[in-house]
Task: inverse folding
């Protein structure tokens, strides 16, 4: 049975964010700004429904979805694109596939103890973030 990811998680670290954003064609000014942000994550996981909030001082991004059901995701706040998104479980990892203009776009969340890990991909770039559960 997959874990319940419900909780609030504080930013700990990230690797390769600038190259990941470059793969999404984000301009240099916005890339530099995003790389300075230390986002928090709030996840509400109820059965097959999830809400994932990425919280920053600049703006929040909310994903509200049912597991295994494809939906159109508006990534306008991120890179101005829309894509067809499906989020499902692969073992103990929550996996998101974002079909659209960019190849190999998506992410996966998993827990290691009380740390939430996030691996984001776009084209050939990978960014990894780690968050510490606080409640």
Result:
């Amino acid at each position: 049975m997959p874990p319940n990811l419900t909780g609030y998680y504080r930013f700990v670290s990230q690797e390769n964010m600038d190259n990941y954003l470059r793969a999404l064609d984000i301009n240099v000014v916005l890339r530099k700004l995003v790389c300075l942000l230390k986002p928090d994550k709030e996840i509400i996981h109820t059965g097959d429904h999830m809400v994932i909030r990425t919280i920053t001082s600049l703006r929040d991004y909310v994903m509200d979805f049912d597991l295994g059901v494809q939906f159109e995701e508006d990534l306008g706040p991120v890179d101005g694109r829309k894509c067809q998104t499906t989020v499902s479980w692969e073992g103990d990892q929550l996996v998101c596939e974002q079909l659209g203009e960019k190849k190999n776009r998506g992410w996966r969340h998993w827990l290691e103890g009380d740390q939430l890990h996030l691996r984001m991909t776009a084209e050939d770039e990978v960014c990894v973030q780690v968050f510490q559960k606080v409640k």
User: Anything to note?
Assistant: The first strand starts at residue 7 and ends at 15. Helices lie at 17-23, 28-36. Residues 7-133 form a domain with the Lipocalin fold (CATH 2.40.128.20). The mean pLDDT is 94.
